[in-house]
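Help needed: design a sequence for this.
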């Protein structure tokens, strides 16, 4: 009998080698992916890193703003000092003006005291510092006008005590010319007084 020769069974070497090749490819891919991730991380880090520098750069800007604000405060204080100076000057000018007006008032009060005769004739004006009296000449003359007056600078306010024109105010400006005075009407609703006062008056007598 002839012996059957067994064929040698071939080992699956090729399959094992293919598995090794596949595992090697996967490992390579993993390394590439990891490398890409690391590279991407560094890229991202490099992109966002300048923002930190930008934040640091902002500090000098804020300091400049603070310095500018301090500089802005100085002119304000200087301006305030100038305003105070102007206020003092205005107050002084106002006081000087009031003093001049007060002196003028006293001078007018002293100058108008006495008895005055109308240069056009027909009336006498007597002033004693507080009260005034208008007397009219002639047999058919009107009753005298009696009232009070007050002086403010070169302005005189007349107020009648009784009719005609009781309690009606009349404002007049007084002017001096040597021994004469003249009244210029500013406002007066009393017809009789308004028709008599606005003329020149000659000095006759003064009261001490």
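Sure. Designed sequence:
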């Amino acid at each position: 009998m002839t012996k059957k020769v067994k064929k040698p069974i071939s080992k699956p070497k090729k399959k094992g080698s293919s598995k090794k090749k596949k595992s090697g490819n996967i490992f390579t891919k993993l390394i590439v992916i990891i490398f890409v991730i690391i590279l991407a991380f560094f890229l991202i880090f490099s992109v966002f890193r300048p923002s930190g520098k930008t934040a640091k750069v902002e500090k000098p800007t804020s300091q400049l703003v603070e310095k500018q604000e301090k500089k802005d405060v100085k002119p304000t204080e200087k301006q305030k000092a100038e305003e105070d100076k102007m206020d003092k000057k205005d107050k002084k000018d106002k006081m000087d003006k009031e003093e001049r007006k007060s002196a003028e008032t006293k001078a007018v009060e002293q100058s108008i005291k006495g008895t005055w005769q109308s240069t056009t004739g027909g009336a006498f004006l007597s002033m004693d510092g507080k009260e005034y009296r208008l007397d009219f000449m002639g047999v058919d003359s009107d009753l005298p006008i009696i009232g009070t007056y007050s002086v403010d600078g070169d302005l005189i306010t007349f107020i009648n005590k009784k009719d005609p024109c009781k309690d009606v105010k009349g404002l007049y400006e007084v002017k001096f010319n040597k021994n004469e005075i003249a009244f210029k009407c500013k406002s007066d609703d009393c017809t009789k007084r308004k028709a008599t006062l606005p003329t020149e008056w000659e000095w006759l007598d003064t009261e001490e």
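The chain has a mean pLDDT of 79.
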